[in-house]
Please model this.
Amino acid sequence: MTLPPRHLVEDAVLHGVLPPAGAAAVVLGVALVAFGRKAAPVASAVAFVAALAVALYAKPVVPWIPNLLKRVEWIPVLAAGGALAGMFGRCSGFAWQTVLWTTVVALGIAKVCPGKYLQDPWWAVPSGAMLVSLVGFIPAVLSRRNPGACIPFAISACLFAAGGVALFAHSALLMDLAVLSGSAFFGLAAVCLFCRVDVSGALPGAAVVLGGVLLSAYYDMDEECKVPASSFLLVAGAPLLLAVAYLPIVNRLGGWKLRTVQLVCVCAPLAYALWAATAEKVDFENL
Model:
């Protein structure tokens, strides 16, 4: 596998990783100081949206206002909507959360889903919508149950892996969107290392990015591209493996042992997905 040149890595870190990670960490940290731990779910959603805004200012890969005809440009907007749905679930009740999340999913189907995907068998769209919803809300439930850095770090890893798969599928733009979002969650995880709080409000937003990036990258890649479909599927479903915590034999572990098992279950398929994606060669200088 050919590694990217050093100057590209430095540019990605300075303009694609540090701004959203720092913004998310600062917003969440300030909110915790000002309003206390109980505000963390709502503050995490606000921090994620703020991180996206800062990221797009530092590295404007897509415009703030999406073009009606450009699918990729809708992903950050709908991700912010997903985070707002997560926030509403904690401060306004299940009904408002359901309405807002249904609206986000419907707009995602209309604005982000490729035409080829919509022409697939009838079950493809509802199955995809269900997967995105599960990825958004199962980790959220787990975050409320076991607050801390494990869940946001795992989601960050999934988003970074999605960016890697998109890169090998020759979609640098989709990679950027995944990395910006993954960096935001890395910032949230960094704060959670020092104070174990629930960041469930932001997690539905990550599900939108993950689903949008992987679906778009899969249907946009050339027929000759060697990235296997399994790489996309493994990354898309990896967050659901956090639910291994519901197994009695795992749940009894508790503490750092439980979190280690969760992270291993998530990171193992991510590592395989990235390794399989390297079957396709990338010219880093001409991205």
